[in-house]
Amino acid sequence: MQVDLPSYVPWIIFAPAIAALIQHFRGEKLPRKGDLVVIGGILVSAFLSFRLMFEWAALEPGQYFEQTWSWFTLAGGHTFTMGIVVDGLTASLLCVVTLVATLVFCFSTAYMKGDEYYHRFFFWLSFFAVSMLILTLADNLLMLFMGWELVGLCSYKLIGFWSKEIPNAEAAKKAFITTRVGDVGMLIGMLILYATCDSLSIKAIFEGVQAGKFAGSETALTWAGIGIFFGAVGKSAQFPLQIWLPDAMAGPTPVSALIHAATMVAAGVYLTARMFPIFTPDALGFIAWTGGITALLAALVAFTQTDIKKVLAYSTVSQLGYMIMGVGVGAPWAGMFHLTTHAMFKACLFLGSGSVIHAMHHAQDLKDMGGLAKKMPITFATFSIATLALAGAPFFSGFLSKDAILIEAWENGHGALFFIGLGAAFGTAFYMGRLVYLCFLGKPRNQEKYDHAHESPWVMTVPLIILAALSLSVFYDGFADKFYRTPAYAAEFPITETNTHAYWTTGQRPDDFHEGHGPSWFHTVAMLMGVIGLGVGGAIFMSGKRNEKTRLLPSGLHDLAAGKYYMDELYLDGFVASANRLADGCTWVDDNIVDGLVNTSGKGGLVLGVVSADADQLVVDGAVNLTAAATQGAGAVASTAQSGRVRNYLAAALGVTAVAVVLLVFVIG
Amino acid sequence: MSALTFAIFAPIVGMIAILFVKKEEAEKAKTIGFLTSLVMFAACTYVAWQCFHIPEGQQYVLESKALWIDLGGSFQVHYHIGVDGLSGMLIFLTGLLSVCAALASFTIKQSVRGYWAMFLLLHCGVIGTFASLDMFLFYVFWEIMLLPMYFLIGVWGGPRRIYAAIKFFLYTLFGSIFLLAGILIVYFAVTAEGSGFTGNPFSIPDLTDYALAMKGSGGILHNFASSLSWIPTAVFWGMFVAFAVKVPVFPFHTWLPDAHVEAPTPISVILAGILLKLGGYGMLRINFPLFPEVLADSAFIIGTLGCISIVYGALVAMAQTDFKKMVAYSSVSHMGFCLLGFASMTSEGMNGAILQLFNHGTISGMLFLVVGVVYERAHHRDLNRFGGLMWRMPVYATISSIAIFASIGLPGLSGFWGEFLSFAGSFKGLYSGAKIITVIATLGLVFTAAYYLRAIQKVFLGKTNPACEQFPDLDKREFWMIMPLLVPTILFGIYPKYLIEIYQPFVESFMTLVAKVGA
C-alpha cells in the first residue's frame, strides 16, 4: 500500500549533488581540496537514508513510500514520470550505499593523499553517489536507466583515473563498452515492456503483466525479462560479460571497494530483484544458470591469481553470480540479502587490501607479501573477519545469506545448481584461505618491503573496523524477512501465473525457514564447506614449500582458469577484430562504391545531358546558367584549376535536370 | 513588419552594412557580423517564445502573407511566412548556433568582408526556409542558402575546398531539382480541371488540408493518379531524395564528409547544426503531410534507410583517423535516428526524431567547435598524433567529454532523449519489420561508444604528446563560443519538458493525420 513520501527524501540525492557541484567548480581551491565538502554531502545523505529506513521499518508490512512527478508529456498522452519508491529493497540498499560510501570517502582521504588530481577524485566519488542513489530510488525504468548509465560513466572515469598510463585507460574503455553491450540488451527489454504496457513505471509494468497484456505472447515477456537481465549481466559482470571487472582493478582501490564490489556491480542484482515479477519461468531458469555458472567459473580463476586485488575481483564476480543465482532460483530476497552482507565484508576486504597496498607502497602482487599480520594487526584482524564472513563461517553474516541461497536452490528443485553453489562455496573458502595465508601469515617473501610496511592511519583503519563489525551475523537476525519479503507492489499485483515462488508475491514468510528445510545434513555441510575450505586453503602453505605460484588445480584446468578461459582473446580476436574489419570494409564501400556511384552517374549524366539538351531550352538553360554562374564565381574567387571530376558533376546535374524535364513534359503533356 | 520577417532579413541588413566597410577597415566587418548574429539570436528567441502561445485553433503564429510573383491565373507565389513550434524551435537553434559560429569565425583572416557577407546571407536563407509557408518561397530560400555555403567552403576551406564545394553544390542541386519538379507537378495536379482544390496551389497549409481531405481517393495527385498510379509514389520519393541528400541519408551522404573536412570550423558548425536539420524539416513540413498515404506504404524502406545510416555511419566513423571526419560520419549515424522515428509514425517516434533534430544541432555544433579548437593549435586532426591533452587543457577536456558523452547518448544529457524516444517509437512502429529494424539499429549504440571512447583515449588520455606540451587551454572567446550549446545540452538532458512542449501541437496534428490515413 502506498504511503506519501517524506518530503526530505529528494535531499538524499540533492546533498551529494550539491557537494559534487561545489567540488567541480571550487574543489581545487578549497581547504583540503574540498574533500570535507564531499564527505559532508554523503554524511547528510547517509543520515537521511537511515532516518528513512527507520521510518519505513515502522510501517505495516507491505507498505511503501512512493511519489511521482511528471517529467514530460508527449502528444497522445504518453506521460513520462520521475518517481521515488522506498520499500525494503530501496531502504536497505540506500543504507548500504551511503554507509559504504561514507567509509570509503574517509578512507580515500588517506589513501589518495598527495595525488595530483585529488579534488577531481572526490568530485567523481560524489557524482557516483548521486548516480547510484538515483538508480536506487527510481520507481521507473527510465530514471533507473539514467542512474544506471551515469554510474557507468563514473565507473569509466574512476577506473581510468590514472589514465596517464594507457593500460588504465584501456581498462576503463573495456568496462564501458562491455557494460554497454549489456545496456543495449536492457534497452531492448525496456522497449518490449514499453511497447506492450505503454509505460516504463515499474508499477504500471507489473499491472500490465498481471492484466494479461502479454497473454498469448509469453515468449515476448521471456525476451523482455532476458533483455532486462542482460543489463544486469553487463553491470554485475556475469558470464559471458564478466571480462571487464578484473581489469577494472586498474582504478584506485577505494573505487574498487565502493563501485566494483559493494554498490554499482550489485545494481544488477537489485534490478533483477526489483523486476522479479516479470520474469517467466524460462527467464528465471536462464538467470539462475547464468548466476551458477558465473559463481563457479570465477571462483576457479581466483585460485590462480597472484595479485591481491585480482583475487578479490574474481571473488566478487563469483559472489555476484551467487546473488543472481539466488534471484534466478526464485528467491530474490535471498539474493538481496547476500548483496547486503557481501557489500559489507567485500568492501572491508577491498579496503583491507588497499591498506596493505598502501603499506607496501603500491605493490599488490602476493610475491611481495607474507607475514604482514605482525606489522598490520588491525588490517589483519578485520581482513580475517571479513574473510570468515565471505567463506560462510558460522556467526558471520555470509553464512546466513549464502545459506539462504543454497537452501532456496534446493527447495525449488534446482539440485544441480545447489551442488554447483556448494562447490563454489568450498572454492571461495579455499582461495580466501590461500589469500590470507600468503598475505598475512608465513614468512615475509620480500624482506625490504616488509621492513618498510606499517599499519595504516586511523582514517583507514576505523572504516575497516566498522565494516568488519558489520560482517557479524548478530546484525542480521530477521533482517531478510523484514526487508526483502514484502517489496513494493507485491501485494497489489501478485503475479502468480508467471512466478515460480509464492513467498515473494504473497508477502508471507515461511514459518519454518531455517528449521527443517532442506536435507538434515544441509547446514552441517554448508558450514563445513566454509571452515574446511579456509583451513585447507591456508594449511597447504604452512610447510613453506608452496607459494603463490604453486598450481593448485589440475594442470589443464589451471591453464584454462589462469587464461580466464581465453575469453578476452575470443572477444578481441573475434568480435573486436571483426567489428574493425567490418568498419574498414564499410569505409572501403563508402569511398569506392557509394561515392564511386556518384562519380559514375556523373559520367552517365554527361551522355544523357547531351542527348536531352534540346528537350526544353528554358528549364535546362536555367539550370545550366545557375551552375555555370556558380562555377565561374568559384573560379574567379579561388582561381584554381578545375579537375575533370568537376565536369562529371556538372554533367550529372545536367542529366538529372533532363530527366526531370522529361518527366514534367510527360506529365503535363 | 513582423518579428519573423525581421529575423529573416536582419542578416541582409548586416550584409549591406558590410558592403560599405572599406577594405582597410575589414575588422569592422567582424564587429558588424557578430552584432548582427546577436540581433538575429534575439529575434529568433522572440519568435520561438511566441510559439509557446499559439492561440487555440490556429496552427501558425507571426503569419504574414503578401502576393509576390503573379504570373496570372492560379500561378501566384506569395511571400507567406509563419511559424509553429517545430519551425520556431529550429529557428531558435539557428539563432543560437549563429552566435557560436560567429564567435568561432573571429579567427578568419582572409577576405574578412566577403566571409561575413556570405555568413549572414546563409542565415537569411536558413531562417527563410524554416519560416516559409509557401512552397515556392521555400524553394527560393532553399536555393539561396546553397550559394553562400558554396563560397564559404570553396574560398575559406581546406586544401581540397574546390572539390568539396562543387560536390556539395551539385549534390544538393541534384536533390533540389527533384523538389522543384515535385512542386510543379503538385501545382499542375491541383490546378487541373476537376481537382476540387480551392486554395492556393503553393500554400503549404492549404495543400496539407487538401491532402488530408483527399485521403483514400488518390491523395493530392488524384487527378493524375487515376491514369498514372505511380505518380504519387514517384513524386514522394523525388522530394524525399531532395531532403535525404541534406539529412543526409545513406546512400546520399558522401558529400558530407568532404564538405565537413574542408569547411572552416564555423561553417562545419552551421552545416551540421542547421543545414542538416533542413532535410528533416522539409520531410516533416512538405514531404510527409502532402503524401501521408505513400509515407505509410514506404515506412519500411524509410526505417531501413534510417537503420543503415545509424549502423553504417557508426562503422565508417570507427575506421576514421581524422577527428573531424569521424565526427562527420557520426552525424550520418545520428541523423539516422530521425528516419527511424519518422518511419514509425508513432507519437514517441516523431518526438524522438524532432528532438534529435534540435539536440544533434547543439551537440554536433559543440563537437565541431571542439575539433576546431584542437585544429587551431595543432594544425592537423590526426587522432594518432595527439595524446594526454587532458593534463594540459583540463577545461577543454571536460567540455569535450561532455559533448562526446552527449553524442554517445548518455542519459542526463540531451542526446539521450532523441535516441531513446526514436527507439521507443520505432519499436512500436506500425509497419511490419519495425521490431527487427529497431533491434539492429541498437547495435549502433555499441559502435558509437567504441569510436568515441577510442577518440577520447587517443586525444585526451595517456602521456602528453610532446608536440602538444605547449597547447594553451581554452581562452575566453573559445569558452564562450561553446557555452551556449553546452548549457542546453545539460539543461534539456535533465529536464526536456519545455523543449518537448514547444512542438507538441505539431506532433498532435501529425498524429491526427496518421490516424486518419489509418496506417
Task: Explain what the structure shows.
The complex is a heterodimer of chains A (669) and B (519). With 669 residues, chain A is mostly helical. In chain A, 69% of the residues lie in helices and 3% in strands. In chain A, helix 6 crosses helix 7 (202-210), helix 8 (218-235) packs parallel to helix 12 and helix 12 (281-304) packs antiparallel against helix 13 (308-328). With 519 residues, chain B is mainly alpha-helical. Chain B has a domain at 294-519. Chain B contains 21 helices and two strands. Chain B has helices at residues 3-19, 27-50, 85-104, 112-131, 135-156, 161-191, 204-213, 222-225, 231-246, 255-262, 265-290, 292-318, 323-344, 347-378, 389-392, 394-408, 415-427, 434-460, 476-494, 497-502, 504-517; strands spanning 61-70, 76-83. In chain B, strands 1-2 form a two-stranded antiparallel sheet. In chain B, a hairpin with a 5-residue loop joins strand 1 and strand 2. Chain B is globular, with a radius of gyration of 22 Å.
Main attributes?
A: 669 residues, mainly alpha, 3 strands, 69% helix, B: 519 residues, two-stranded antiparallel sheet, 21 helices, 73% helix, 3% strand
Secondary structure layout plus pairing:
The complex is a heterodimer of chains A (669) and B (519).
Chain A: E1 2-3, H1 10-26, H2 35-57, E2 64-74, E3 78-86, H3 88-111, H4 118-137, H5 141-159, H6 166-197, H7 202-210, H8 218-235, H9 244-247, H10 253-262, H11 267-274, H12 281-304, H13 308-328, H14 332-359, H15 372-375, H16 377-391, H17 397-411, H18 415-440, H19 447-452, H20 458-469, H21 479-484, H22 502-506, H23 522-539, H24 555-562, H25 567-611, H26 617-638, H27 644-668
Parallel strand pairs in A: 1-2
Antiparallel strand pairs in A: 2-3
Chain B: H1 3-19, H2 27-50, E1 61-70, E2 76-83, H3 85-104, H4 112-131, H5 135-156, H6 161-191, H7 204-213, H8 222-225, H9 231-246, H10 255-262, H11 265-290, H12 292-318, H13 323-344, H14 347-378, H15 389-392, H16 394-408, H17 415-427, H18 434-460, H19 476-494, H20 497-502, H21 504-517
Antiparallel strand pairs in B: 1-2
